[in-house]
Amino acid sequence: MARVSNTAEETLSKSTDSASLARTQARSAEIEREIDKDPSRFRILTGDRPTGHLHLGHYFGTIKNRVELQKRGVETWQLIADYQVITDRDGVGPLRERVLSLLTDYLAVGMDPQKATIFTHSAVPALNQLMLPFLSLVTEAELHRNPTVKAELEATDGRAMSGLLLTYPVHQAADILFCRANLVPVGQDQLPHLEQARLIATRFDKRYGRVDPDRPVFRRPEALLSEAAHVLGLDGEKMSKSRGNTIELRMSADETAKRLKKAKTDADRVITYDPVNRPEVSNLLLMASMASGVAPEVIADEIGDGGGGALKARVTEDLNTMLAPIRARRAELEKNEDYLIQILREGNERANEVANETLADVIKAMHMDYV
Ligand code: TRP
Are the C-beta atoms of residues 176 and 215 closer than 8 Å to each other? Predict the structure, then answer.
């Protein structure tokens, strides 16, 4: 039987090096055109860790794009990745509250639960069981090379590498492969994980074989790199809950105004869009632009020499206008927890059906169906 081999096309390559990034970008543009032609060829899976509340970084960076893909007719599977919460921390935190908040955000921004399967790791045992055969298909060296895992370990300030942190990309491969998703909308940091998932799909086919001789058990998923602009936090650093520099979708209009009042700007009263030299001012312009659809340069011209105060007033207005209907839906949904739980139950049920079918194929391919 074949070993996990290390031939060139089969090793975990540097999926984030510039040449391969350029290829992924070109392929993503091609996929966009294919979606326009025939959205039914694709099944999307994407996931979020329920570690906090969704903020504008998430919304502009990926969530908005997912809702658009769904509206364009692509079948979507949306995972609330609760087992991934404990990759880099000890406890799961207030998980129930966070999962429900995330689900509320999904629905409030327009994800349609009639069309999307929204589900959680912990409720789908067969998905988790795929981890076992998958672990047999990766090498320890490969796991240690994953740049995203390395970066996550560094961000934990001296924690020891846990077995789960090291191997969660394999678990993530199970997320993607179990439902036979062929498209994963992601940011660059997730590319190594996607590459790992493709390797597992190929190696499974080589090592354990097929049930149907005409098709492998697992489909090979591709990345869809979104071109969404990357917004920073209100201090010009990465937007993240721990820095207190976010605007969360669930905040009120007043809280949003208050946060924006404290946002960092600079001393030059003439507002210009210049991301390199004026990152904070430009980031606020970018947010106003993403919210209103008006180009950041145009907004800058309109503000002219109005200074940071006028800029903040403008961003506050644009964001609150964009967020108003989302917040209204959110408030409605929050009143109806039974409905939220029902959505999760239905999503989990559907995910279980598909995961059980996939696991049955896996067990058959591996000749473990002997009783
Ligand atoms: N790792 C992703 C993140 O940290 C979340 C995630 C879990 C995911 N499973 C996934 C993303 C499957 C894409 C596909 O954001």
Answer: no
Q: Say whether both 257 and 308 belong to one domain.
A: yes
Residues 187 and 262 in one domain: no
Decide if 237 is inside a domain. no
Evaluate whether residue 114 is within a structural domain: yes
Strand order of the β-sheet with 43-48 is 116-120, 75-80, 43-48, 183-186, 222-225
Task: Verify that 35 and 103 share a domain, yes or no.
Answer: yes
Question: Distance from the CA of 46 to the center of ligand 1, in angstroms?
Answer: 6
pTM of the model: 0.93
Residues 321 and 341 in one domain: no
275 is in which domain, residue-wise?
253-334
Instruction: Please give the helix or strand (H or E) that residue 120 lies within, else none.
Output: strand 116-120
Which atom of ligand 1 is found nearest the CA of 175? 12
Domain-located, residue 80: yes
CATH of the domain at 134: 3.40.50.620
pLDDT tens for the 371 residues of the chain, in order: 444 444 444 556 567 688 999 999 999 999 999 999 999 999 999 999 999 999 999 999 999 999 999 999 999 999 999 999 999 999 999 999 999 999 999 999 999 999 999 999 999 999 999 999 999 999 999 999 999 999 999 999 899 999 999 999 999 999 999 999 999 999 899 999 999 999 999 999 999 999 999 999 999 999 999 777 789 999 999 998 888 999 999 999 999 999 999 999 999 999 999 999 999 999 999 999 999 999 999 999 999 999 999 999 999 999 999 999 999 999 999 999 999 999 999 999 999 999 999 999 999 999 999 99
Nearest alpha carbon, ligand 1 atom 10? 47
Mutation test residue for ligand 1: of 46, 168, 226, the one with most atoms within 8 Å of CB: 46
> What is residue 357's three-state secondary structure?
helix
Q: Cα separations (Å) of 219 from 42, 125, 181, 190? A: 11, 20, 7, 18
Pair 355, 179: CB distance under 8 Å:
yes
Is there a single domain that holds both residue 166 and residue 196? yes
309: domain CATH number? 1.10.240.10
Residue 197 CB less than 6 A away from ligand 1: no
Q: Give a yes or no: residue 70 inside a domain.
A: yes
Tell me if 81 CB under 6 Å of ligand 1: yes
Ligand 1 pocket, residue 184 CB under 6 Å: yes
